[in-house]
């Protein structure tokens, strides 16, 4: 296999929690050397966000999820010596990633304006809740509140008038993870741009901007129609039937994407006449008449088991699937075949189980070969190599 695409790129990572570390873990998997700067004795907050903890270790699972492949260097940024160390490290780095409050690094001489004069080809990525300007710029931003402010929770959950109705957040930190991915994409673009210009840039990424940006078809549903979308539970606003259905022994997802699939489903379900009914003959009509269609389909689906439906519908090309818990996910033969569980050696636990990077180059998953580092594990190594300090 060829060298990893970012081999030779060095990243100074001043971020913590999730959005920034998710970005820099992606860069590490792609081959960059990532130097994670942590406060001595404390480190990234997520090291203590447990339980659960890695066996024989005080590393929280949360921390392990987003720090693979990095080198941990313990430096106290609040001291003059620590600031001088970081300034010296900047000279040896291509990229700096930080998620301090707006202006929070200026007093240390580590803001973009100061570092641009020192190193004009530096790519500097700032991740904040609300961006570098605007009326909310000084506010702290956290994923949960961003999911609410950015509209996602208005679309997630059951309608207010149904039992259990009300806004619900997504079960993972959606805004943080997407912001990390946007950040890594932006950094890759800036590295390419630097090849032409020789200059760095300041990347300004906001959790709120990202949350609004990934509203996708729902945002366009509103901007196109002027109608505010509501919560539909597991149903789809633009496709019917496209939701979870109760079966004889559980649930399944039925994802009918076109009229031909609907016809085949109705044939298998023993109701071919529904596919010819003028109320349901096209997806446009099915969306308009979902309240009439769903009560007709639900009792039919409930007559058969989930496995029975999955086998039958797969055989005729109608998209469907189970609703797996995480034990079932990692036991799934396709997930196992693709190697989505990654095991790496760990100095305290012996081994740590992680989730693989889903990117593959030439059939090989791009994963760093080293586990998330212990606090300060690489301090001496990095300072000696880059700054010639014993």
UniProtKB/TrEMBL annotation:
Alphabetized UniProt keyword annotations: Transferase
InterPro entries given in the database record: CoA-transferase_III_domain, CoA-Trfase_fam_III, CoA-Trfase_III_dom3_sf, CoA-Trfase_III_dom_1_sf
SUPFAM superfamilies: CoA-transferase family III (CaiB/BaiF) (SSF89796)
Sample GO molecular function, one term: CoA-transferase activity
Source organism, top-level taxon: Bacteria
Transmembrane segments: none
Name this protein carries in UniProt: Crotonobetainyl-CoA:carnitine CoA-transferase CaiB
Species the sequence originates in: Marinospirillum celere
